[in-house]
Amino acid sequence: MTAARPTIGIIGAGKLGVVLAQLALAARYEVRIAGSGSPHAIGLSMRVLAPGAQTMTTIDVASSSDIVILALPLRNYQHLPVDALADKLVIDAMNYWWEVDGENPALSDPASSTSELVQEHLHK
Ligand SMILES: NC(=O)c1ccc[n+]([C@@H]2O[C@H](COP(=O)([O-])OP(=O)(O)OC[C@H]3O[C@@H](n4cnc5c(N)ncnc54)[C@H](OP(=O)(O)O)[C@@H]3O)[C@@H](O)[C@H]2O)c1
Among 34, 43, 58, 67, which lies 20 to 30 A Cα-Cα from 83? Predict the structure, then answer.
């Protein structure tokens, strides 16, 4: 008997999120994906770019997936649904990119990584 494969949730349906969805689908994982708004807003692009990925709200992706990959702009990490992610395996694929995130000393402090900030936020 083989174990059920984990479902993969992706928060962020942009350049990185789409490529991750394509790779996970090609590897035969069940994929759920969300952008910042309604699932309908990304429905057409996901049907074209990552057919088979289920579009959902962010909170539904977080609560219904076994593994959740963070692929949203880092500046928005404090909007993540902390409670829904509480018992999930979360993979942070975000980077600080000042052109997108703006000048932010908290995110560019070499004393700590941005993934540590995200982890701290999720453990609140
Ligand atoms: N592009 C790369 O090659 C690459 C490689 C490695 C890492 N990264 C990192 O991955 C992250 C995303 O980069 P990207 O290039 O994919 O950005 P992007 O193309 O701008 O896509 C960002 C996605 O995140 C969504 N989003 C924004 N705020 C959100 C929120 N609060 N909740 C849920 N979804 C939200 C956006 O939805 P809306 O469109 O609805 O706003 C959009 O779908 C960044 O931290 C970047 O540094 C990127």
Answer: 43
Alpha carbon of 97 to ligand 1 centroid (Å)? 11
Ligand 1 atom with the shortest distance to the CA of 76: 31
**Average predicted confidence (pLDDT) for the chain:** 96
Tokens of 3: 């174990």
Give the H/E segment covering residue 11.
strand 8-11
| Domain span holding position 66 | 8-122
| Position 86 in a domain | yes
Q: What's the pLDDT tens digit per position in 52-107?
A: 999 999 999 999 999 999 999 999 999 999 999 999 999 999 999 999 999 999 89
- Is residue 75 included in any domain, yes or no? yes
User: Which residues sit opposite 44 in a β-bridge?
Assistant: none
How many distinct structural domains can be found in the chain?
1
Whether ligand 1 lies within 6 angstroms of the CB of 36 is answered as yes
pTM: predicted TM-score of the whole model, two decimal places? 0.96
